[in-house]
Amino acid sequence: MISIRRQWMMVLILAVVLSVAINSLVFGILINRTFIDYSTDSYDEHVSQLEELSKKVLLENTYSQQQINMQLESHLSDPIKEIKLYDADGNLLGEVGNETMPMMSGMMGRVVQTQAEEVDTHEIMADGLVVGQLIITRYSSISNSLEAKKFMLSLAGSGLISFGIVFTLILLVGIFISRRMSKDLWLTAQQAIDIDLGNSSEIPKSRIKEIRTIQSSLDTLNVRLKMKQTSRKKLIDELIHQTRTPLTILKTHLEGFQDGIIELNPDEIKICETQIEHITSIISNMSNMIDAQKEVDSVNFESVDIGQLIKQIVSGLKMQFEKKNIELKLLNHQKILVETDRYKVSQAIYNLLTNAYKFTEAGGAVTVNYFTEDSFLDIVVEDNGKGIPKEEQIKIFDVYFRGANASGALGDGIGLYVVKENLEKIGGEIKVVSEPGKGSRFIVRLPLDRRTK
User: Fold this and answer.
1) Which residues, in sequence order, are CB contacts of 90 under 8 Å at separation 6+?
2) Which residues contact 453 (CB under 8 A, 6 or more apart)?
3) Most buried of 8, 148, 350, 421 (most Cβ within 10 A)?
4) pTM for this entry
5) Residue range of the domain that includes 325
6) Do 324 and 419 fall into the same domain?
């Protein structure tokens, strides 16, 4: 298994080698061609100058052999190896040659010495007559000349040096970038591991667009998972909270049966059955939560006699209120049918009454009333307890909120949140009117028909 860092370095090195090699090859060919063109033009210029010099020497006849050799020697440059000047009778007037060649050693000397040579003969004309002959010995090709070979070797050496410098710089830059990339990828992998383990992690954002996109996606996923986890916890807390009221009612009535305070009659048995049904419904919702994609809290509309429902709830809680010396009154016994969810309405009323129970002192009173208005049903739960400060009234329906008056009271700030959530799911709403020290009044409004909203 090869790492991204190593792959990156391999690709980078391969790209550098290919680019430098191709660039050096093309650049070398172009420069070599330019050099050969320049050398050819220089040779032609030397030949032209030698013909003029030879003509002058042959016609004036005033130059000594030493002077002639000195003049010829000034033109003895690559690719010219040897220059000879003869008069019309074939007498040698001057001769010069490249004496450095035999002294050369090593690879350059061996390469040059093995090159083929050519002899160019130029007749010197004057007034249409041949007055002499100029013989020039040179390398067979300009590209085979000593200077050309030296130039090509120098060019190859410069190319290697350039390649070495570029390769070193690119290697250093590649190492830096690969470390940066691998670090960002490692941190991103660590972020994913932390999300999987449920750990919180703060990593610096990468400047690489693709990696930053992955990191942002992981952040979004983390937020969604936390929201889902929070939602799941909130629902579980709701369900656990909802079990407390029916269990408390059952416990209170069982204690009443044992102490002989409550008579075991059909009404009392019905109250206990109702609480057991509530607990069964709660447990069913808990089991549904195992399936994350399943609707946890479904709504079941039916025709409900709200008077009978409230009477059962009040009867179930009455003994608990009496133990704390709180008067609990139901002010209406009228039969009113409402198309709604029996469980959610009863849970809302239970929570409002248990909330009133907690914040009403001994000797206080709690009343429950209900009446219709237009196409709506209003249920009013009122107490003369501690009351709620005005600044807290907009927060009391938030999950886990506990006001200043809640210190010392049992609870976790879920009851009123459950009330609001339940009512919203069945098209209802809740309002509060309260004043510290004078008690609170909660008004639940429900549509008589679920099509009325």
Assistant:
1) 133
2) 427, 447
3) 350
4) 0.45
5) 287-447
6) yes
